[in-house]
Amino acid sequence: MPINDALQRLQRIYDLHERFCADQTFACRRGCAPCCTANVTLTTLEARAIDRHWARTGEKPPTARLQQAARHPRFRPRLTTNQLAAICAAGGEPPDEASDPAAGPCPLLNDTICTIYPARPFGCRAMVSHTDCARHGTADMPDRVLAANTLFLQFIEALDQNGRTGNLTDLLLWLLSGSTAPPTDLAANRTIPVLMVPPEHHTALLPLLGDLRPILADLTG
C-alpha cells in the first residue's frame, strides 16, 4: 500500500477514536504528563507519521534525547495486540509483559508538553482518565473506552500488517538512521485473528466496528 494511503487511513482511525470519546469528560489537559513515559509503544506506520510531522513542520527531531533514552531500560514488547489475540483465541496463556513505571519521561516531551501532539501515536491517545492521575496515582478509564481501545489497537496493527511494533525510542531511531527495513528483533505485526470484544460490550461497540471495518475493507477481504 502506498505510504500516503496508509497514513490517511491511520488518521481516519485517530479521528474515529476522538469522535468515540467525544461524549466523555476527561481530566487530561495540556501539561498533564504522568502517563507520558519512555514505555510508549507504536507501530512502524505510526513512527512514519511522526517523521512526516517533523518534515511538514520543519521541526528538528530530538535525536540526542532519543539516543540518551536508548541507553536506559524501557518497555520493549515481545508480542503485538493481534499476536496476543491469537494466543487467547487458541486457549493459550499469554506471557506477562508488565512495563516498569520508573522508565522515566518520554523523550519527546519538552518539560511536560508533548512536542508531537498532533501526530502522537495511539498508545498516547488511548491514555485517558476521568480523574487526575497525578493526584490519585492511577487512571480512571471507563470500561467501554478500555474495550474500544483494544479494538483500535487491533485495527492499527492490521493496517501496518507487514510492519513491526516496538518502543517509540527504538522505532524513531530506526527511521532517523535511514534504514529501509525495521529491526527484526521487534514484534511482527499481523492481521486480526479474532476481535477482542468482551461479551458485555458487544452491543455498545457494534457501531464502532461498523466504522472501523471499511478502513481495512480492501486489505482483509
Describe this structure in words.
The model has no long low-confidence stretch (mean pLDDT 88). The protein has one domain. Helices cover 46% and strands 6% of the residues. The strands form 2 sheets. Strands 1-4-5 form a 3-stranded antiparallel beta sheet. The protein has 9 helices and 5 strands, in the order αβαααββαααβαβα. The chain is mostly helical and 221 residues long.
Over all CA atoms, what is the radius of gyration? Answer: 17 Å
Shape: globular
The total count of strands amounts to 5
Helix/strand order, N-terminal first: HEHHHEEHHHEHEH
Instruction: Trace the largest sheet across and list its strands.
Output: 1-4-5
Strand proportion, as a percent range, falls in: 5-15%
Number of domains: 1
**Count of separate DSSP helical elements:** 9
The helix content, as a percent range, equals 40-55%
Report how far apart the termini are: 15 Å
Mean pLDDT: 88
**Biggest pleated sheet:** 3 strands, antiparallel
InterPro entries: Puta_zinc/iron-chelating_dom
Protein name: YkgJ family cysteine cluster protein
